[in-house]
Amino acid sequence: MTYFVHDSSYVDEGAIIGEGTKIWHFSHIMSKAKIGKNCNIGQNVFIADNVILGDNCKVQNNVSVYEGVIIGDSVFIGPSVVFTNVKKPRSFVSQKGKYIKTMVERGVTLGANSTIICGVTISQYAFVGAGSIVTKNVPANTIVYGNPAQIIGPMVKTFREEL
After folding, report:
1. Bridge partner residues of 127 (DSSP)
2. Which pLDDT tens digit goes with each residue over 109-147?
3. How far apart are CA 17 and CA 9, in angstroms?
4. Which sign, positive or negative, has the C-alpha torsion 93, 87, 57, 113?
5. What's the Cα-to-Cα distance from 24 to each of 21, 31, 61, 64, rounded to whole Å?
6. How far apart are CA 118 and CA 137, in angstroms?
7. Each residue's pLDDT tens digit, 65-79
C-alpha cells in the first residue's frame, strides 16, 4: 500500500487512493471515491461514492463530502465544513441519482463550519470565511464571508504554484 489508513478507518474495496495520502481515525471512504496523491484526510471524515478529491488536499476533522462534489488540487477544507447535494431534502422522497454537482476548484480554502449549498462553483484560489453559507458561485481570487456569503475583497495566491 502506498498510502496510510489508520486502523479505525474503513476504505471500501474499489476506492482509488493516491500515493502518500493519509487517512486518519474513524474515517470512511466509499468504494467509488477517488482521492488524489498526498492528501491528508482528518478524523471522522466521510467521502461518498463518485466524489473526486484532487492531489495535495487537506480535509480537516468532521467533514462529510457527499456524492456530486468534485474538488480540485490543493484545496483546504476546514473542520466541520458541510456540503449538500440536493436542494430540497425530504426523508420520505428518494433522490438517489438526482444529486446536484458542486465544484470546488484548485487552491480554494473553505473555512471552518462553512456550508456549501449544492450546485455552486467555487472558482480557483477563492477563500470562504469560517461559518459562511455559500449559496451562489464564487469568482476566482475572491474572499467571501457571511450568511449568505458575499464578496468582501480580492484574494491573492499565497503559495507556490507547484503545490
Report:
1. 109, 143
2. 999 999 999 999 999 999 999 999 999 999 999 999 999
3. 14
4. negative
5. 10, 17, 9, 14
6. 10
7. 999 999 999 999 999
